[in-house]
Design brief:
The structure is a single chain. This protein is α+β, with helices and mostly antiparallel strands. It has a domain of 195 residues: SMI1/KNR4-like, CATH 3.40.1580. Helices cover 53% and strands 10% of the residues. The protein has a 4-stranded antiparallel sheet. The chain has a 3-stranded antiparallel sheet with strand order 1-2-3, covered by helices on one side. A two-stranded antiparallel ribbon has the order 8-9. Strand 8 and strand 9 form a beta hairpin. The longest helix is centred in the N-terminal third of the chain and has 20 residues. It starts with a helix and ends with a helix.
Length: 435
């Protein structure tokens, strides 16, 4: 068993080093040596059972504790919602709480890891007693998902899949009747994508536009080397390459990100195509948020903002515009015209309106006007000021300090809730320090 665990550790170390080298973040990578007999015995006494023999040998002869967690720090266009997680330890073994008295009393499932969202990874003690099956339990669905017919097979399979997990929604795409299927269609797609991610260099990608497009989806477009490589191609060719990539995308969650890359890398050269997205029959399916972002990036002057505002005004005729929707559509424009438009629509709850105000290049005169406006305007402006100051930013222009202090004093006097008064005081304190 010791040799087998050492083999796992070698594979883990090699994979995690390759992931780090390509820009992924390895947040935790811990293997503690085998646990002594006394500690194992204490755990068994706490649980009231002996650990399954194979699991016991892994802990007592190989690795008493394993903690691995990696993720993509940058936006990476992977074919699945992916990060890697694998963990066990003596302290982690526990009888799980399912919210079901019968399940808890039968002591069938023994947890050895809890995912960040509260899902359990469990040993099914009704299975093969020496090396029991591993299942996942989703805290939202309350359902069990078979991951492997044994603990050792679980470690083998999850290692081959780069530790995919440990939430049940992450395991699910790769599971078949026998648990994680490392040869299934999704697993093959994931492993092929991961191999490309780990091996494609910028030097190689720069030679062919389709490869460069793939590289950007792995590492974003802001790198100076990527920008230099893109500059060798005509913008129309870059747009066509992105549209070709868009046609091949099978994971709907990635489409908005692909539209974002078009805005970042093509800009106004994509103006005619973006205008076509506003037609009754757009050439591709696009969300309102992506269309607004593309309009901000690619349409000249105020054209993009005028199109989005016109659409919002049309929608306002039949339903109220909420702050989060408005912020999602307008925050990319960074325009004071958005602040003027918002004044006739801002209302409670003010969530989203404050973020939009802060994102729209406000001047101090805008702040004064909103502080002197109705209650939803005032609270939105106060919250927006707090966000700006927290980022080390401030509205543009020179503040009329006396007028602002007067309006803040008025806001504090009229505030009803304690949290509203505290918001005013925080802004006043920040203002005193602002030069």
């Amino acid at each position: 068993m010791k040799e087998r665990v050492e083999g796992w550790i070698g594979r883990w170390d090699a994979l995690l080093k390759r992931l780090e080298a390509q820009g992924a973040t390895v947040r935790e990578w811990v293997v503690e040596p085998e646990a002594d007999e006394e500690r194992v015995g204490e755990t068994e006494a706490r649980l009231g059972i002996g650990l399954p023999p194979t699991v016991r040998r892994i802990i007592a002869e190989g690795a008493g504790k394993v903690t691995i967690y990696w993720y993509f720090d940058k936006e990476t266009l992977s074919p699945f919602e992916s990060s890697g997680e694998l963990a066990w330890s003596l302290d982690a073994f526990e009888w799980p709480y399912f919210g079901d008295d019968e399940l808890e009393e039968e002591k069938r499932y023994l947890a050895f890891h809890v995912a960040g969202n509260g899902d359990y990874v469990l040993l099914d003690l009704e299975g093969y007693p020496d090396d029991p099956p591993v299942v996942s339990w989703g805290h939202e669905t309350g359902e069990f998902l078979l991951l492997a017919p044994s603990f050792t097979e679980f470690v083998e399979r999850v290692t081959e899949l780069a530790f995919i997990g440990a939430e049940d929604s992450a395991y699910e795409p790769f599971c078949g009747p026998d648990g994680l299927d490392v040869d299934g269609l999704n697993a093959k797609a994931w492993k092929a994508w991961l191999d490309r991610y780990l091996t494609l260099t910028l030097e190689e990608a720069a030679k062919e536009l389709p490869l460069l497009i793939d590289y950007i989806t792995f590492h974003e477009a802001e790198d100076a080397g990527v920008r230099e490589a893109l500059a060798r191609y005509e913008p129309d060719a870059v747009l066509e390459a992105w549209l070709s990539r868009l046609e091949r995308e099978t994971y709907r969650g990635n489409r908005d990100q692909l539209f974002g890359y078009i805005g970042e890398t093509v800009g106004e050269a994509a103006a005619e195509w973006v205008r076509s997205l506003w037609s009754d029959r757009p050439p591709v399916e696009v969300s309102n948020y992506s269309r607004a972002y593309l309009s901000a990036c690619c349409l000249p002057g105020s054209e993009g903002l005028e199109r989005v505002l016109a659409r919002l005004e049309l929608e306002a005729q039949s339903s109220k515009i909420d702050g989060y929707s408005a912020n999602g559509l307008l925050r990319y424009f960074h325009s004071r015209d958005v602040i003027r438009w918002a004044e006739s629509h801002v209302a409670f709850p003010f969530g989203g309106w404050d973020e939009l105000f802060a994102a729209s290049a406000p001047h101090w005169e805008d702040v004064c006007r909103w502080l002197d406006g109705h209650e939803a305007m005032r609270q939105s402006a106060l919250s927006a000021l707090g966000k700006l100051f927290a980022r080390g930013e401030a509205p543009e222009g020179e503040p009329g300090r006396g007028e602002i202090i007067r309006l803040l004093d008025k806001a504090e006097r009229e505030a009803v809730l304690k949290k509203e008064k505290e918001a005013v005081r925080r802004v006043t304190a920040h203002l005193a320090d602002w030069r």
